[in-house]
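Justification of computing resources. Each target in the renewal requires a structure prediction run like the one illustrated here; the chain below, 611 residues long, is used simply to show the kind of job we budget for.
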Amino acid sequence: MRLINFLRTFAFVALLGSTITMMVSCKEDEENPVGNLGTITGTVTAEEDGQPIDGVTVTVSDVTGTVTTGSDGKYTVANVSVANHSVTFSKTGWQNTSVTVAASRFNADKVATVNASLRNASAKITGHVFDGENNRAPLAGVTVSVGAAGSATSDATGEYTVDYLAVEDYTVTFTKEGYPSDTRNVVRADFVNGVATLDDVVMGGTELLRGKTATALANADKWYYNEYRGGGNAEAYPHWDWACDYMCALDFWGAWEEQWEGTTIQTRNDAAAGDRNNPADLDVFDSYVYGSKKITNDNKILSLRLRTHSETDPTIFGVQVVDLSAASPAAVKIGTNQEYVGSAYTDFDFDLSAYVGKEVVIAIGTYRAATGDYSRQLVLRRIAFAPQKMEGWNWQSGTDPAGLEGWALPMEVVRSTMPQTKKSFTGISPYGAGRDVSMTNGYPYAYRWWREIAHIGFEWSFVPLAKDPEVTPFEGYIIKTNGNVGVNTTVPQAYLYAKFAITGENDQLTLKTRNFGSNYTYFKLTAIKEDGTVAHLSPASNTATEAAAATNGCWRFKHANGNPDNPDNYASFVYNLSQFNGSNVLLCLSVFKGGTDTDENKVCIYSIELQ
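Resulting structure tokens:
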């Protein structure tokens, strides 16, 4: 009997132990599914030359620990669940990168191959900052920032170094409490053996314009062109239209906004910001727009077409010039303060003859005439430079280059346009825009972003002789013709122009473009020298689906491929400019109604580069 009880007890304990073992085993299977583990493997190479990179730390999300690449750039991470993961690659001196791996990426053998290329980030920007209000003593505690790429703080000697950068273009910002901020631009060519030096940054000093010292003004935007248009209304369409007017992309200080009637400089009057406590000052601008301009006999008269919003309260405004080459630079008024009241547009002119032959900073602004609640607006429709006062809605007049009659591009403009300092331009806008004047999500917001990317709408001058453009399509900036108009291959419907000092460093131009539909687009690239010599250029090569020379120097093409996700699919037209080496040349990209179809014909610009 005891034996029977013992056997029964033994059997129960054995059965209970088996059950416990099965439960534990099931739980372990749930946490680490048997047969559901795989491997992630791959190779890490340098973006610049494709060579393998060793010592790269590879981190897989949800996996404990890391691995590093070998001398051949290869790595392997075992025992990875077949699921979604993020794989991060990092190494000092290289830009980190991450790749998302979906469960579907694992093959039948449960292996996911994840290769990566890293960009070298061993470059640096270094230099010293000095105190302009303390006899140029070294200035400590200045925050030096290149945006998301990094920042540094100047030490007791004024020295700073921003490390671990890629060789790219940067906007470097210098900030310190109690000092006006300063910015400098660094371009790829400034890096020598991976080091770019900004060694003479002076902060503080005397403000020549409100909020701007000589150091800040030395980096003012260049006003390359002789006309800037503002506002969203379509007076004298298409010369003035929201899609053609880019004044709001200029640089402003103080209170301003884009309006239907014009780009509007205001007096600062924000009660919450304490603006109404600002004292009256009829010598220092309250708010202004400014830029650097080379003055010649061809553009020595500055004309402003403007209005206000009040019929009773005048706006007091004026023009000031800062000659940074003077022994003691100062803001000098051009003439006396002006005032205007009314909703009718009128024209004012300012004589800049005293500065012929010099590049100077020009500011157009409003003055505060009283403290308290003082709100005034100066609505600018046009800023123009010419040999004489400009009035009304007309194009600039003068002597046309032979063969370009009707282009509204007189020799006075050809000679006095300033050479561009950039060589690479994009037609892709970071933000879309329609006919909406909102400063937060309308076309002014999109146009302001053009400043950051060398957009062709900001860096070149657009002339809408007969047709407005499409400014922010996904595929690029579009100049185009009207649809149902007669054939004309001598006078364009619209064009863009910029001047370049041609050398061996920039004597090859590449236009990446496309069009739409089944019709040909007729276009020209025209070069105009400062002596009036005109040449319509033929591309040395092109990759368009169809392209051929046409009448009067035009080329016609069809090419319906290309978008920012596939930039190599655009047609490339390559031009040899070496015949102009040593000369300043105005380059015009124009579109013509060359066919009898009734459609709009378009040149969609992805990019223009001079190399």
